[in-house]
């Protein structure tokens, strides 16, 4: 049990002894920035003051008298009613043994028995991934790792939009390139795809099948579409795998539509439908939406919204306790209409959660870069990852809240200095590995004995916060908080290293304790970087 968990339980019991309700999972414990104000603090007295009918500071004093926790050395009341906790040193030092014992499992919370479906990226299989997809991939994958750490059973899903106009244009574009290879004039419309990757696909068709598909008929029409989807999707999967991103499930829109699903869903929703000007509308304004949404066009074809409803019903029917969609910022209008459709099926308003990811701009030498020198086109996912590397792209794309716009500094990402945050964190891990190698043969003492100076205690408190950080970051859907934790840990470690001699063979007792501390830092850093999908090198 972490110190924060101990304090929450002690506060819950103290409040109950005063006849007040304060569930431990609602109590906020913060780490003090200034050690003069203790190790931890809480604003619980201010939150409960109205319920207690007392001034916050008076209530804080009453709570302090009731708190019983052996790990607490001293309690002080500060300001308008903050309760500050000073922990016994052994309560902080004990974390070293816990980290070393648990290793790669340190920070992982017990199973919550809850299943979450997390859908992200879901790029149309019609071309290369762009940087918006890259950020969705980094955020989505890190969020999946984070939620797994927090005890959830997470299914990672990619929705393949293999129906609709864009897919028709893909098939037509490949067909045009295929005919071009046989000497026919190229016939591409403005809405068709002009990328050179389709030339390669057309060449592979010619190499495999010769002129078999020159005839324009239903067979060739369907062939070009399916061949194009399969090739484009294979390319997307490879680019994502190279980025450390994989999925448990690929769901195809064409499969969702099978068996008359749209017609059956419309029949289920019939009490929520009405017709206007030949189109069929869903009364989403009866729930959360600002206007009703068309589900069937006046020409009888479904809108994009209709198969999306079927898809979310499909996900819900698979027994998930919660659905999370990671979407681009241009999808804000999508949320309430889909929540409304799910509520028509009997699901609560908060069953679906949407996390929005803002746009990315790339800067180099102080100027925005929009085109790749290699391809002459807009910078694609593959360009940036090949130029800068997986680790830098993933860290930089996660370190800011996904709800904030991201300006990617190409020069900084390539820098091997403390100014580069991912390098700074990785170098801390590598330095820990180096110190452990130098101290090989010296037995580690995980008791924390002798670790009393300011830098050591600062690291110990930060290490002890790892589990609560995971819990908070997962609750807030905020992988960037893990990046901030890793950077803070690196900063505390580098400061400790600059001021303290780790290996002193004339003082093996302290050396043993400090090497154990180093091993704990190394484990926590590797676990944090692992959640971000960033490697933790042993050497740099």
Descriptive overview:
This protein is an alpha/beta fold and 540 residues long. The chain has four domains: 85 residues, Gyrase A, domain 2, CATH 3.30.1360.70; 157 residues, HUPs (Rossmann fold, 3-Layer(aba) Sandwich), CATH 3.40.50; 78 residues, no CATH class; 116 residues, Isoleucyl-tRNA Synthetase, Domain 1, CATH 1.10.730.10. It is built from 21 helices and 15 strands. Helix 6 packs across helix 15 and helix 17 packs across helix 20. It is globular and about 85 Å long.
Q: Kindly provide the name of the CATH class of the largest domain.
A: Alpha Beta
Report the CATH superfamily of the largest domain: HUPs
Shape from CA axes? globular
Query: How far apart are the termini?
Result: 35 Å
Strand order of the largest sheet: 7-6-5-11-12
Number of domains: 4
List low-confidence stretches. none
CATH structural fold name of the largest domain: Rossmann fold
Q: Please indicate the percent range of residues in DSSP E strands (runs of 2 or more).
A: 5-15%
């Amino acid at each position: 049990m972490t110190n924060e968990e101990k304090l929450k339980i002690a506060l819950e019991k103290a409040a109950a002894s005063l006849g007040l309700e304060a569930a431990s999972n609602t109590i906020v414990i913060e780490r003090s920035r200034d050690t003069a104000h203790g190790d931890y603090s809480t604003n619980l007295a201010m939150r409960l003051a109205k319920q207690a009918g007392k001034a916050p500071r008076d209530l804080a004093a009453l709570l302090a008298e009731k708190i019983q926790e052996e790990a607490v050395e001293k309690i002080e009341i500060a300001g308008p009613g903050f309760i500050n906790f000073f922990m016994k040193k052994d309560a902080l030092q004990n974390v070293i043994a816990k980290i070393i014992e648990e290793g790669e499992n340190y920070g992982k919370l017990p199973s919550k028995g809850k299943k979450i479906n997390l859908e992200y990226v879901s790029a149309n299989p019609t071309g290369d991934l762009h940087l918006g997809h890259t950020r969705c991939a980094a955020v989505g994958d890190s969020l999946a790792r984070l939620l797994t750490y927090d005890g959830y059973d997470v299914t990672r899903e990619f929705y393949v939009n293999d129906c609709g106009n864009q897919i028709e244009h893909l098939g037509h574009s490949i067909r045009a390139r295929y005919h071009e290879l046989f000497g026919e004039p190229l016939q591409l419309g403005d809405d068709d795809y002009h990328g050179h990757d389709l030339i390669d696909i057309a060449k592979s068709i010619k190499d495999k099948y010769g002129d078999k598909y020159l005839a324009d008929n239903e067979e060739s029409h369907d062939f070009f579409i399916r061949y194009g989807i399969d090739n484009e999707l294979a390319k997307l999967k490879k680019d994502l795998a190279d980025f450390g991103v994989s999925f448990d499930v690929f769901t195809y829109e064409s499969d969702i539509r099978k068996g008359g699903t749209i017609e059956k869903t419309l029949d289920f929703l019939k009490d929520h439908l009405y017709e206007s000007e030949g189109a069929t509308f869903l009364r989403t304004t009866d729930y959360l939406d600002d206007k009703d949404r068309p589900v069937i066009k006046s020409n009888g074809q479904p809108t994009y919204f209709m198969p999306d409803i079927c898809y979310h019903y499909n996900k819900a029917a698979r027994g998930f306790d919660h659905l999370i969609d990671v979407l681009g910022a241009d999808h804000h209008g999508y949320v309430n209409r889909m929540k409304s459709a799910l509520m028509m099926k009997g699901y609560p308003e908060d069953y679906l959660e949407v996390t929005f990811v803002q746009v990315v701009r790339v800067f180099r030498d102080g100027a925005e870069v929009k085109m790749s020198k290699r391809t002459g086109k807009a910078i694609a996912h593959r360009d940036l990852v090949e130029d800068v590397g997986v680790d830098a792209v993933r860290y930089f794309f996660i370190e800011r809240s996904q709800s904030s716009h991201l300006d990617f500094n190409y020069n900084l990402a390539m820098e091997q200095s403390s100014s580069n945050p991912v390098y700074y964190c990785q170098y801390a891990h590598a330095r820990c590995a180096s110190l452990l190698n130098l101290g090989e043969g010296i037995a580690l003492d995980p008791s924390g004995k002798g670790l009393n100076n300011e830098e050591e205690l600062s690291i110990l408190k930060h290490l002890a916060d790892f589990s609560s950080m995971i819990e908070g970051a997962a609750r807030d859907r905020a992988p960037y908080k893990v990046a901030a934790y890793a950077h803070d840990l690196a900063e505390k470690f580098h400061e400790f290293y600059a001021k303290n001699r780790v290996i002193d063979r004339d003082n093996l007792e302290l050396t043993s304790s400090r090497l154990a501390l180093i091993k704990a830092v190394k484990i926590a850093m590797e676990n944090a970087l692992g959640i971000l999908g960033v490697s933790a090198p042993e050497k740099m």
